[in-house]
Write a structure and sequence with these properties.
Structural class: mainly alpha
Strand content: under 5%
Oligomer: single chain
Number of strands: 0
Order of helices and strands: HHHHHH
Number of domains: 1
Low-confidence stretches: 1-9
Radius of gyration: 14 Å
Length: 135
């Protein structure tokens, strides 16, 4: 078994869960004018620690960055909640990396657009409907 493979018996995290967290984090980052490099730094921070504990370290890193930079507090809080959720459900670094990568895609897609729904309440489906002009 490879070091990145989920452990025996670990639950696979639903891709919908990953996508919905990504929508929340990406929308919050856009609303707070977080720099794209900060999202990239979150993704890179997953490699600072071996194993699943990297999710916890990345959650702490997100909170530290928001405090240090004075912006992105909602983004950091949502990233923290998402990473804790993934960790508690048995998620691994690959799933966290996928979620944060999707969050960066959402962030990039929202240039010049502000969702009508608060980021905490968004799902990817709702966000896509808003982007399409529907409700």
């Amino acid at each position: 078994m490879s070091a990145c493979a989920p452990s025996e018996g670990a639950a696979k995290i639903s891709e919908k869960v990953l996508l919905d967290w990504a929508a929340k984090i990406g929308a919050a980052a856009r609303n707070e004018d977080v720099r794209p490099a900060q999202l990239e730094n979150l993704i890179a921070s997953l490699d600072a620690i071996q194993g699943r504990e990297a999710l916890l370290a990345t959650a702490a890193f997100a909170l530290r960055q928001a405090q240090r930079l004075g912006i992105g507090r909602t983004t950091a809080r949502l990233a923290n909640q998402a990473l804790l959720d993934l960790y508690e459900k048995g998620g691994d670094k690959d799933e966290a990396r996928k979620m944060l990568g999707f969050a960066k895609w959402v962030y990039e897609a929202l240039a010049g657009f502000r969702p009508r729904t608060r980021p905490e309440q968004l799902t990817l489906e709702e966000l896509l409907k808003q982007l399409a002009g529907g409700r």
